[in-house]
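INTERNAL AUDIT FORM
Audit reference: QA-55
Scope: verify that the stored structure record matches its stored sequence.
Auditor: D.O.
Record contents follow.
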Amino acid sequence: MLYSAAAPPARALTQYLCMVRHGESLWNEENRFTGWVDVPLTDVGREQARAAGRLIRSTGIRFHVAYSSALSRAVETARIIIAELGYDVPLIVDPRLNERRYGDLEGLNKDRAAEAFGAELVRAWRRGFRSRPPGGESLEDVQRRVVPFFRNAVITDLREGRNVLLVAHGNTLRAIIAHIDGLSDEQVENLEVRSAVPILYTYDTASGRFVEKKVLG
């Protein structure tokens, strides 16, 4: 787009994206693979969500729309956070933000799975970008499903001046962060997303880029 000397470009505006992994679920507590199984939060997870909401509120940023996966542990976390913010935020639920499918591993204790299949193979299934557990999704598969949604919904909101809260799962957030930050496969393997710890991105609407990232707490 060209600008004349008499009409300089408008000052760049920034918007905010805050992403949060849900609080502790019952199967997190039991160290089990969860995937798409709809497991509720524990009381600890609910308190983690309340603490996350207080941290987000302390930034002074007002959010205009929230997204969560269709799984109850993410939906409840999002609702608790919104309650802590103290004002209404429309919540949009979409299954494209659901956790990765762990297939045959779902419901298994992670330590016992490592004993049965071998620790190295289970680590590759859990942490690798392209490794796919039997009957499940790789992180690359998750990225293929979640990034189009992220571009069409979240980026559109940011460009149109809306700050966005997004509550999902460890692997869906890893897939989004890898996309935003341009991470290599090796960097993705070492990426940890902690439960109920908000990650705040600043989005520059002029350049269409994320320009700052902060982990709150």
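Auditor finding: record pair retrieved intact. The CA atoms of residues 133 and 197 lie 27 Å apart.
Action required: none
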